Amino acid sequence: MRLTILVCLLAGLPLGILAQNQVAQLNTDTIGQKVIADIVISGNDKTRERIILREMTIAVGDTLYWGNIKAALEQSRNNIMNLSLFNFVSAEPIQLGNNDILVLITVQERWYIYPLPILELAQQNFNTWLKDPDLRWLNYGVSVSHSNVLGLNQKLSLLARFGYTKRFSIGYNIPNLNRDQTLGLNLSAGYFENEQITYNTFENERLFYENPEEKAQKFYQYKVGLTYRENIFVKHLIELSYFDATVQDSVPILQPAYFTGGGNKSQFLRASYLLSYDTRDYRRYPLKGVLLYALLQQDGLGLVNKEGLGLFTTVASYRHHYKLAPRLYAAQAITLKANWDNPPYYLLNGLDFSSFVRGYELYVIDGTAYGLFQSNIKYELIQSKVIKLPFVKNEKFGKTFVALYGNFFFDAGYVDGDDFRANNSLVNEYLYGLGFGLDLVTYYDKVMRMEVNRNGLNEYGFRLAFKQSF
After folding, report:
1. Alpha-carbon distance 307 to 300, whole Å?
2. What is the 3-state secondary structure (H, E, C) of the chain?
3. CA dist 327 to 31, 181, 378, 407, 445, Å?
4. Which regions of the chain are under pLDDT 70?
């Protein structure tokens, strides 16, 4: 059989055809243990083989029962897809003899270097912008990235954004410093300008400071992070960041607690540690698997900050995605966050832009701690299928997949913040929202969500978003 495979390779016969012919034979011989005799990878014109092999949950020489082989190949395929280097991945077993199995991994690589135009609203969501549809909220620019430098899954990114919120940044991510690909390094630097900044909340909405002659806020941010990938599913991240922020003199008058010490400038170091356990099948839009992570973060290490900042923050989250029946899926998530010291307003985050109860997208709920519960039930209206775009000749862009899901959701949350309760009715109150929507998943990990929701205030809303809910 090995000779047959070699002849096929030399003759240019696709291994996929050989795999199809052999799988039927293998399905009739599932008794006893099988030995992984070899792993062959095809389609990786740029990506190094060791990058793909690192994601495999089986290796040459392993001895497994047939059921375990099928499960391992499915998990390995998911791991390789989650590299975000390929449009399509298949993992097929080929029987070489009574007990020997060859594993064929076939990938279709993406286009790795391309610029993306930036056209976005500097609001927490589209609904908020509709309350004040002014083009001054518009951000525009370009981002350029190379997502597979040297074929080693290293990522270089450059960004230049203008408009309401200016941002210029550069970042480089090396996930494989050592031969075993367990150590990684992240480096980034950025400069930001804000036309307006939020200095407080009133009636659960932001209060803005704006000076037409000067930028409301300018800040620099530098980061260096070291990752340790303990195994396929467990990852550790230690990160050190430096912040240098300046606001106009009027800001600490309006909000004396904007920075610790009441001045208009803050310089501090942040040290953080993140532990994650991730078994999700497709991280951009998971249907099965678990994500568990914990974050410990200390702002102000007493080295560069003169205002006496010292803020310890913890975040913990558990997300579970699972299948209920054919084409029917469910998911729940619980997130808890707490500031263990009194934070300056600059570092305060309750339920707002990145974390919120669906139905409360128009509100900002300040506080020093919160709990958030999210849940979904999804039905696969259109099963994932491959489509070809007729006018795009390049397969890296012209061949993709689409899937459509209908979903019903229910969220609940609570924000603890006694200092903000007097002027914000949603603080220290139980919040809930529910609704239904459509999720379209397609093309280079893109997700588009359309939702109709209702919150605990009996308000109805429509939300358009371009990422998964959780």
Report:
1. 9
2. CHHHHHHHHHHCCCHHHHHHHHHHHHHCCCCCEEEEEEEEEECCCCCCHHHHHCCCCCCCCCEEEHHHHHHHHHHHHHHHHCCCCEEEEEEEEEECCCCEEEEEEEEEECCCEEEEEEEEECCCCHHHHHHCCCHHHEEEEEEEEEEEECCCCEEEEEEEEEECEEEEEEEEEECCCCCCCCEEEEEEEEEEEECEEEEEEECCEEEEEECCCCCCEEEEEEEEEEEEECCCCEEEEEEEEEEEEEECCHHHHHCCCCCCCCCCEEEEEEEEEEEEEECCCCCCCCCCEEEEEEEEEEECCCCCCCCCCCEEEEEEEEEEEEEEECCEEEEEEEEEEEECCCCCHHHCCCECCCCCCCCCCCCCECCCEEEEEEEEEEEEEEEEEEEECCCCCCHHHHEEEEEEEEEEEEEEEEEECHHHCCCCCCCCCEEEEEEEEEEEEECCCEEEEEEEEEECCCCEEEEEECCCCC
3. 30, 36, 8, 12, 20
4. 1-29, 122-132, 134-135, 305-306
Helices 15-27 and 2-11, axial angle in degrees (round to 10): 150
- pTM here? 0.87
Calpha distance 93→152 (Å, rounded): 26
Determine contact, residues 185/177, Cβ cutoff 8 Å. yes
Yes or no: say if 175 and 54 are a contact pair by the CB < 8 Å rule. Answer: no
How many other C-beta atoms lie within 10 A of the C-beta of residue 343?
Answer: 19
Which tokens belong to 157? 């990114």
Are 85 and 49 in contact by the 8 Å Cβ rule? The answer is no
Give all domains of the chain, ordered by start, each with its CATH number: 2-109 (3.10.20.310), 113-371 (2.40.160.50), 372-470 (no CATH)
The CA R_g of the chain, rounded to the nearest whole Å, is 25
The pLDDT, as a whole number, for residue 52 is: 98
Q: Quick: pLDDT tens for 317-369.
A: 999 999 999 999 999 999 999 999 889 999 998 887 778 999 998 899 999 99
The whole-angstrom separation of Cα 465 and Cα 450 is: 7
